[in-house]
Design a protein that fits this description.
The protein is mainly α and 144 residues long. Helices cover 60% and strands 0% of the residues. It has eight helices and no strands. Helix 2 packs across helix 3 and helix 4 crosses helix 7. The chain is globular and about 55 Å long. Keywords: Endonuclease, Hydrolase, Nuclease.
Length: 144
């Protein structure tokens, strides 16, 4: 599954901007794959927890993989002067459209790291510290 399905699904996933709805869809897709591997029908009313136990996991890991990839990519962008960094930090003149602001890629990074944006930028410049922050994504541990 990781060889065929995940490699296709995760292609360029570090550049995605996701919200709660997207996260639910990603987890649903992962659970669907696990159920197909186990040949478990949705009619059998097997809980996600039992499906994960039968696969040997405690929780779905696809979303965590995406979040870790995004964090690593953000550290890479922060340490190198490139056109991607300029685009990421750029501002657009003019007025924005009405309504709620859209979720941004940097907002995802800030939410995942549980740090303020200035702390994220400063920490990402130090590769060792950034690797420890990235390694603890999804652990529930507060970054230091």
């Amino acid at each position: 599954m990781k060889c065929f399905a995940w490699s296709q699904f995760l292609y360029a996933s570090e550049t995605w901007t996701h919200n709660k709805n997207t996260e639910k869809r990603i987890e649903a897709m992962e659970m669907w794959i696990y159920r197909r591997m186990q040949r478990t029908s949705w009619k059998e009313k097997v809980t996600n927890k039992k499906v994960l136990e039968s696969v040997g996991l405690q929780r779905p890991e696809l979303l965590l993989t995406i979040q870790r990839r995004k964090m690593k990519y953000n550290g890479h962008l922060r340490r190198h002067d490139s056109i991607q960094k300029r685009i990421l930090e750029g501002k657009i003149d003019g007025r924005r459209d009405r309504g709620r602001r859209r979720q941004t890629w940097l907002g995802n990074i800030q939410e995942t790291s549980q740090m303020k944006m200035c702390e994220v930028c400063e920490t990402a410049l130090d590769r060792r510290r950034w690797r420890t922050v990235t390694a603890h994504v999804g652990d529930g541990m507060a970054p230091s």
